Every structure is written in structure tokens, then in C-alpha cells.
Amino acid sequence: MKTQAVIVTGAGGVGKTTVATALALTAARAGRRTLVVTVDPARRLADAIGIELDDEPRPLPGEPSLWAAMLDASGSWRAVAARHTDPETARRLVESEFFAAAASHFPASQSYAAAEEAANFIESKVWDLVVIDTPPAAGGIDFFTAPGQMADLVGGRLLRLLTGGRLPGRKFIFERTARPMLRVADSILGSNLLERVAAFLMDLRTTYDGVSRRAAEIEVHLRRAVTIVVTTADPTPIREAVRFFRELPEVASRPRAVIFNRSLPESWAGAEPPPRTNLELVENLARWGQEAHRQAEARREFAARYRARVTSIPWLAHPPTDVTALAGMLGQAEGFDLEALGI
Amino acid sequence: MTQTRLVVVSGKGGVGKSAAAAALALVHQREGQKVLAVDMLGASGLGAHLTAGKPGSEPSEIRPGLSILRIDRAKALVEYLKVQSGVPAVGTFGPLARAFDALASTAPGIREVVTIGKVLWEVRRQVWDVVVVDGPPTGQVGGYLRAPKTISELVPSGRIRQQADWMQSILLDGKITSVMLVSIPEELPTTETEETIRWLEEAEVTAAPTVIANRVLPELKTSAAGRGPVQEAAALHRSLWADQQEWLARLRPARALPYLFGLLTPGEVAARLADSWMET
């Protein structure tokens, strides 16, 4: 059995996780064994799903073909260290004072860990379909470039920079008095910071073989996956969506579709209120009509410029609070069709 | 000249942080103060909202009383090294800056201290009435504000440690520094704002932050029965408004900025938010 992967991506705050879950639900109800992998869902959405989420996939009550799991991106480096080096080095790495800093300076590491988890689910061949919601921290294209960046990072890019090109043994870096440049750095930074950083980086490097091999495998999964971009018609998320259509074909594949969430009916644009309508309501229709017009223009421009398949999900007066409402979201969506998306 | 004040604006991505920072800079400028607006991470929409294009890495006046500066991390690093190492030869900076950048990526606080150091230096110069910083998003702002303290704990001596001490004293002084968290009344931004407030309180790195709520809908008093766009638009508005009230009760914002309808340029957005800011 071949497992298909769908990656749902887009700017933060556009309802990406909700759309990913609704998509998985729709596929599951069409009879495909589906796993949805989310990252840090909102409380309301978690409540709507109706089960406690963690990294173990669990079936949803009343949905015989749907499983859900949540990835904890914050534990990512810990997992990488545990998986790809010996226990003694892993312990040293995790206990290092530099560990947290390196993790927070490289959002790629969170994306890498999420992608590695997702790859494990894909390879387990338990599901027909694995729908992956991308982590908000990295956002954008980073999710797709993370494996390569991660391999590059642990492979000693920092270490090479630190020592001017050569990959040294511990001894070499400690003889830093021979290198005026490092002496200067030492006087600015004080104490033996340099030595401590170098020792940490050398430990990190022991994960290289494991990480680089796994990164190459993950990249294959990312390239084969169907990618769907979620956005709203607001300028910032649209800018992000544009980046996907421009840059994703290079690193993975062309996005299959763009989903505009929180869409207003275009019929509101320029709609004439009946005579003798209360003035406050007339003004209210006028301002939402302006929004509807702006949104419709944005969708049309996107479709024309990027020749993208456009789906719009209506702006719901109430966010979904149960699976029925979640399924209804895509039921009301204009232009949504799993088959046309190749799912 | 009175003491320069520093306002660090932060918020979750997508809540209008840069627009709010630009609006605040405009408010102070319109009040006749000498303002410096800073794009701290060098990639924000601040320049567009102030119709200044991409700002340069030195302060430049874009209209009377309002200057703008974009912090370029690589440049800030080289500049820092130039001042701190006392080595004038530019040639040295290639390998030194690269090595330093590698260190800055691994050792906590160093990259952040170089960036926020440039902001705090502008505060220390005493040439501005107010420095408004379009700062890091909420997920990262703590790391930046805590950076001087982190350095003090990590490094017992050296020049960077001495720098960290004066920086901490500016950040901790509630008469100089304030933090403004921009949010919108929705679930995830509200939760993230609450988490950031808690974090900042526990870290004791600045005075308590204030909250600004953005995209707040006006109340619609009339309800409408029947079908049609009038009724549908009213129903959506009322339901979104009611939902917002729930999150506003938790955010308890010091100020609410309005939802702006229709097609506006970034410059218009900032100007309209500044108008609203000055009305209330």
C-alpha cells in the first residue's frame, strides 16, 4: 500500500490547522484511512476533535477512518540527539548550556524534527493518507528546506566558520593563542566561552551521519507530497502564499491549490439594501461589502497571476466546535474537490 | 533635553505589529516630539507603513521629527567588533566576523545583545524624545529583552559583559523602557499574549507590558430579521463582535485600535490607526 502525504502550509493565523483537520476529515469520510498530524492546535480546535492529542496517533471517536496526532516541536533537538548519536554524547548535548540557544536560533531544527516525525508516519504504511500541518515557528518555505539546513548545521558549518575552514580536533581549537582572530574574540567574549562552544559543536557533529542520511530521505517525502497553501485575503498572508507559488517548485513541487479562508460572499460587494433599511445596517453592509470586494479582487488576481486552483471557505460566524461543523466547513467551500486536487 | 523613552512593540505574526508600531511613531511625531522608529530585525513592514521604502542602517529623517532606522544584523555585528576589538583593519573582519557570527548562533544572548545593543545605544545618545521599536515577534521578544541578563550569567568577564550591565539598567528602568504587546481578539493571539506577559513578569527584565488590541470591531446595535446581504452581514458582524468580547475580556487592552475595512495601502493603515489613537 502506498501512503500519500499532503502538506498544508501558509502564514500563521489563517486557520491552517483547522483547514488541515477539515481536509483530513473529508478524505476519511470518503473512505480513506487518514492521519492528521497537527502542531500546537488551538484549544477550541482540540476540543472540536474531541480527543487528547499527543505524538501517538489516536482514532477519533465516531470516525472509523480518521486518526490524529500532535507533534511537540519544542522537544525536537532532544529527539534528534537521542536518535542520532551515542547515549553519552546525547546526554552531554542535552545538558549543554548552548543547546537551547542553538535550538532557538535555528527554527529549521523544529521543522526538521516535525518533518522527521511525519516521515516516520508516512513510512509506517498504516495510512492511505497523512495530512501534515506545518509548524508556525518556521513558517513559509523553511519547512521544506529544513532537512538540508539541519544536515549542514550539524555537519560543522559553525565549526568550520569558527576555525577558519579546517575541521579541527579538540586539541587544535584549544591552541587558540596561535590564532590572533580567536584571541580578539576571546577578549570580547571573556573567559573560556570559545572553548565551551567548540566542545559543544564537536559533540553536535557526531550526529552528522545519522542526520544527513535521514534528511535525504525526508526530502524525498517532501518532494512527493501534495502541497496546499492556506491564506486569507489579507496582504501579509497573501505575500506568504505568493512565496510558496514562486519558490516551492524549486525545492519541492508546485502547490496543488490555494485555499482562501474567511471568505465573504462576493454578492455583498455593491449590494443595494432594500429601501427604508435602518441606517446602521446600511453602513454595516457597505463596509463588509468593501471587504468582500477587496477579497474577490485578491482571489482573482492570485488565480490569474499564479494560474492557481482557488478554493474559498466562507467566513464562519462561529468557529467549528465539533467534527460535524469541521466537515461542514469544506462542504460549504466553493471549488473544493479532493479528486481535482489529486488526493 | 529630557530622558529618551524606549517603547518596544511586539506581537504574534499577523496581528498588525508593524502597523501599530508605525502608528505609535506617527502619534509621537504629530505631538511634536523627535522620534526614531526602528525596524529591529531588519525585515518588517515598518518602512512600508511609514511610506519610507526599505530603511537604511543609519537613522535618516523621513519627515520633520521622524527618523527611521533598520538594524542589519551582519552590519551591527561588524560594527560591534570594530568598536570593541579596537582593530581598525577591515581585512581582519572577514574571518573574525564569521567566527563571531558562529559563536553568536550558538552561545545564548550574544546575537540578541548585539542587535538590542544598537537600539539601546540610540537611547543612550539622548538625541531622541522617543525610540519606537518594531521588535521581534512574541515568540522571540523575551530572548532579546533577556539577552543582557543571559550574558551576565554566561560570561564572568570580558568587554561584552561590561556592555550587558549598562543595557540591563536601561531595560529595567520603567521610566525609560516600556513594552507594548499588540494582539487581536482571537484565541491564539490572546493565549500567546498571556504567555508572553507571564514570561516577562517571571524573567524580571523590564517593567510590566501594556496590551494593545488591534482589529477591534465596533458594536452593531441594530439586529435584522429576514434574509439577504443586509441580514447576513449583520449576523456575521454581531457574531464576530460577540466572540471578540470574550477575548477582549482576557486581554484587558490599554487601547483598542479599529478594524479597518476595504482596500488600504500600508501607509493609509498606519495613518488611520494613528488618527484613532489620537482620538481616544
Which regions of chain B are unreliable across 5 or more consecutive residues at pLDDT < 50? none
Shape descriptor of chain B reads elongated
Helix content of chain A: 40-55%
Strand content of chain A: 5-15%
The backbone outline of chain A, from C-alpha atoms, is: globular
Total helical segments of chain B = 10
Across the major sheet of chain A, the strand order is 3-4-2-5-1-6-7-8
Q: State the helicity of chain B in percent bands.
A: 40-55%
Which structural class do the helices and strands of chain B define?
A: alpha/beta
Q: What is the element string of chain B, with H for helices and E for strands? A: EHEHEEHHHEHHEHEHEH
Q: Main β-sheet of chain A, in a few words?
A: 8 strands, mixed
Roughly what fraction of the amino acids of chain B lie in strands? 15-25%
Strand order of the largest sheet of chain B: 3-4-2-5-1-6-7-8
Specify which chain pair forms the largest interface: A-B, 70 and 61 residues
Whole-number mean pLDDT of chain B: 89
What is the distance, rounded to the nearest whole angstrom, between the alpha carbons of the first and last residues of chain B?
28 Å
- Number of helical runs of chain A? 15
The helix/strand series of chain A, from N terminus to C terminus, equals: EHEHEEHHHHEHHHHHEHEHEHH
Query: Major sheet of chain B: size, sense and barrel closure?
Result: 8 strands, mixed
Question: Care to give the gist of this entry?
Answer:
The complex is a heterodimer of chains A (343) and B (280). Chain A has 343 residues and is α/β, with parallel strands linked by helices.
Kindly describe this structure:
The complex is a heterodimer of chains A (343) and B (280). In chain A, α1 crosses α14. Chain A contains 15 helices and eight strands. Chain A is globular and about 80 Å long. By secondary structure, chain A is of the alpha/beta class. Chain A has an eight-stranded mixed sheet with strand order 3-4-2-5-1-6-7-8, sandwiched between helices. In chain B, 51% of the residues are buried. Chain B is built from ten helices and eight strands. Chain B is an alpha/beta fold. The interface between A and B is large, with 70 and 61 residues.
